[in-house]
Every structure is written in C-alpha cells, then in structure tokens.
What does this fold into?
Amino acid sequence: MVDLKSQYKNIKSEIDIAVQSVLDSTAFINGSQVRSFEEKLANYLAVNDVVSCGNGTDALQIALMALNLQPGDEVIVPAFTYVATAEVIALLKLKPVMTEVCPATFNITAELIEKAITAKTKAIVPVHLYGQCADMEPILNLAKKHSLYVIEDAAQAIGADYTFSNRVVKKAGTMGDIGCTSFFPSKNLGCYGDGGALYTNNAALAKKVRMIANHGQEKKYHHKVVGCNSRLDTLQAAILEIKLKYLENYTQARIQVANAYDNAFKEIEDLIIPKRSDNASHVFNQYTVKLQVSSKRDALKQFLQEKAIPSMVYYPISLHLQDAFKTATFGIGDFPVTQNLCASVLSLPIHTEMQESQLNYIIDAVKLFFKV
Ligand SMILES: *Cc1c(COP(=O)(O)O)cnc(C)c1O
It folds into this structure.
C-alpha cells in the first residue's frame, strides 16, 4: 500500500544526519527539534500554534480534554471513520453520537450533523476522510448557530486545502477550534514511529492543550489540571522537520497517481472513482473506489491479491456496529449509506514513490478484472 523504504532511501543522507545529531545531543525528550518542527509546521499550515504530542489518537483526546466537556455531553462523529475518532470520546465518558456520511465524498455534512443535534450536543468532530476536507463552511456555520465546538480530525488530510465562498483558502485542521493530526508512518506526513499534533488559532486553547499534554503543568511540579503524558520524541521531530520540506512534493506525487487511476477507471461502469469536491483539494492518503455491485468487492480484492497487488478495506465495519460502541440507540440498518460503504469500498496502493510500471501493472489488473 505504501513504499516507506524507497521514500527513506531518497532522503537517507539528510535523515541520517538529523537522527545522528539527536543521538549525539542525547536530548531525547523535548530537544530543540520539537519546538522548531512545531514552528515550521505552524508556518506551513498558516496557523498560530502547533502542539505536538504522542500520536493522533492522543491529539483527539487532548483536544476534547481542553474544551471542558462534562460526562454525558454529546459529541457528533461520523459512523464511517477510524475507531480513534469515537474511542477518545467514549474514553472521556462523553457520548459519541454517530451520523451517516455523504455517499459520494464519504464525509460528514452539515445536513447530517443537524439531525443529530440535541440539547446535550457540545462538539462536532468532522473527519477529512482519505485526504479530502469535509464541506466545512456549512459545518462551521451550524456550529456557530448552536454554540458547538469543532474539532477537526485531519489525520488523513495534512496539507489539504478548503476554499470558502469568500475565496479564503485554509488548510485541513485549521478551520475549527482545534485540528488534530497523526504522523503514523503511512499518513501523508509520516514519522518513523508514532507522533501527532494539535493545531489552533486560539492562544488560550493552545496554552491549555500544551499544559494537558504535559501532565497538566506549565511549571514543573505545579499541576493545574489533570493531564496526560503525550510527547513527540525529539528523534521523530527531527525526522519530521526533514520530511515536512518534501510534503508538497509528496502530495503532488499522490495526486498524480490518483489522476492516473481516475483516467484509467472512469470508463469502468462497475467502479466509482473518488469524487473530487469543488471547494476542497484531495491529498489522497487513500485512493478509494466504490464497487457498484458490492458483492464484487471481495472478488476484486482477491483477484488483485493473486497478482501480488495489495488493497485494503477502510473500513469494513461501521462504528455503530462495533461491539465497543453498541448502544440501545443504534442498530443494524440505522446507517444504510455507511453500511453500504463498508461493503463496497476498496483502497488501492497509493504512495509517493510509485513507479510508472507499478502503476500500469495495477491499472491493467483492475481493467482485466472488469474485462475492459
Ligand atoms: C490515523 C488516524 C487517527 C489516529 O492516529 P494515530 O496516530 O494512529 O493514533 C485518527 N483518526 C483518523 C481518521 C486516522 O486516520
């Protein structure tokens, strides 16, 4: 699905020097690279503050902790997402309220969110799934109308742009109150282990987030709030500082693969290529097709597997049907769009070092399956 080895080889000399310098300094925790990476990322995203942390799941948890939510408060999330989005809500004794998603973009919409709002709703967590922003302008307007916080799960969408109706362009994760991202190795800006970050333009929130991620302290041994211990290692920060320079190129490489897939597959009637929103760029953390006839999905996966082509189903089970989230409120049949997506989506290999020959091999295999 990804080729992290080739990617590393292409920047090996720079990475090795950066890693060696951390080893030489032995400043493994909170070394200078952590702050300098945060500053560079903030600059790239055009956001006031970036606070790094241990991973993307922690980022979501810390964001919720920073907003003073009370047990039982409701937080709206799409049913079609990675488990982390909803998990941290439940972990904090808040109530994840799941919603259906748009069948074309796979993302949550303001219309769908509105139906789920109750007197107890306090926040919305839009997920920019696969690398394309949810339609944020109406979501932000709705949030404003109901005084709800917006925490963006931008784990798959670092670098993606969203254009507002007044032509203002913002990056994924910088539109709501807090944005969260992950530097898991297969994410678009991946480190060599675990890592994550939060973004915000609100200085008070930034301060709080930083405090929570550091045991609730601003001053050593003075704990103002109950926090947690979630840090980005200096080694990872040093690696990310190098990789951030290549992020735009990496994004372009992904888009080129996606364009080639689109061109090759657009005539296949049984295959639906990813929808590109008019007001959002797509950074293709995943290239995900839908099968018109969902029963053919597993056969295609198997067919590709036999040709040594990996493919993945993100995600095979709707969150509302997971044992961990089963409630009396939701059951089978409640989110037919999401359930249909779980049965019909397939993500194909996409990464920054895809060779033309590999790409053609995959395209030919898919076409062969559909006999076109
Ligand atoms: C990867 C991911 C996360 C979690 O990130 P980790 O760094 O693995 O904890 C959260 N949400 C989404 C949508 C993701 O893709």
